[in-house]
Amino acid sequence: MSPIISDYHMHTPLCGHAKGDPQMYAQHAVTTGLREIGFTDHAPLFTHRDPTISMDHSQLPVYHHMIESVRSEFADKLTVRVGIEADYIPGYEERTKKMLAEYPYDYVIGSVHFMEKWGFDDPIQMKEWSARDVNEVYREYHRLLRKSALSRLFDILGHVDLVKKFNFRPTIDITSEIEENARVFKRTGVVIEINSSGLRKPAQEIYPSLHDLKIYQAKGVPITFGSDAHEPTDVGRDFDKSLELARAAGYTEYVQFEGRKIARTIKW
Ligand code: ZN
Ligand code: FE
Ligand code: FE
Ligand code: ZN
Question: Per the CB 3.0–4.6 Å rule, which of 32, 43, 135, 256 could disulfide with 264?
Fold first, then answer.
């Protein structure tokens, strides 16, 4: 059995672009031998009201109710955590904080998907990449990641090199950005995730890359594992490769959350 027993990143149909009942995600987790899962659907956005990007604020009670039912249904088979994936958008910190305080969470994933209005990882907005300086996009992305850590709104930062998703690559060495990230992540105590969904995208790589992960490991930034499942069969997907990557970077353990605190460290 794989030493990775937790998948901390998966969605529900409430975000408008994921398929399958949460029960099916949980069932797939059981089938693949996981012992713990956490739902992290896209939190309501303050900047957009788009039912194909995230749930609406009015759906939060439905979301929590849904996860509660999965939790009781699978009580003897699986630990079910309640998380959420919230966007980091500068200027909306207070509103995000208020929204996250409305319900109890085991952990909150903070993700950078937007640069101002531009959803740089949205296939519909991919054209915008050709109008931009790729190196500058990378620098801006990493600045936003650091700001998201410093906001202290989040427990885990999601897919910390998502900017590579469509395989637009910088022509300059951005190692100094990653080193600066590592210092800030360590100082703020935030955890990062190893997100296998990049293997299903044009980048064809787990987030983050081995190059970056080595730098985070050297600083002592803890990790979780996530599939970013948008359909049931994605749960736990490619975790063998995620584990291999974590090992190659020098990691020997990952963490589990409960009530927005690191509750346990699992060694392999
Ligand atoms: Zn999504
Ligand atoms: Fe995301
Ligand atoms: Fe996600
Ligand atoms: Zn995600």
Answer: 256
Which pLDDT belongs to residue 49? 84
Q: Is the pLDDT of residue 2 over 90?
A: no
- 34 lies in some domain: yes
| Residue written as token pair 């956490």 | 38
pTM of this structure = 0.98
pLDDT for 93 beyond 70: yes
Tell whether 1 is covered by a domain: no
The alpha carbon of 218 and the centre of ligand 1 are apart by a number of angstroms equal to: 30
**Residue 63 is part of which domain span?**
6-267
Tens of pLDDT, residue by residue over 166-222, are 999 999 999 999 999 999 999 999 999 999 999 999 999 999 999 999 999 999 999
Q: How far is the CA of 189 from the centre of ligand 1 (A)?
A: 25
Q: What is the predicted pLDDT for the residue at 94? A: 98
85 C-alpha to center of ligand 4: Å? 7
Alpha-carbon gap, residue 29 to 8, rounded angstroms: 11
What CA–CA distance (Å, rounded) separates 114 from 264?
A: 32
Question: How far is ligand 4, taken at its centre, from the CA of residue 158, in Å?
Answer: 6
Distance 241 CA to ligand 2 centre (A): 20
Residue 1 binned pLDDT confidence (cut-offs 50, 70, 90):
low
Does the residue 211 lie in any domain?
Answer: yes
**Which ligand number lies closest to the CA of residue 39?**
3
- What are the distances in angstroms from CA 160 to CA 20, 71, 73, 131, 179? 26, 29, 33, 23, 13
Number of domains comprising the chain: 1
Give Cα separations from 67 to 1, 82, 104 (angstroms): 26, 7, 12
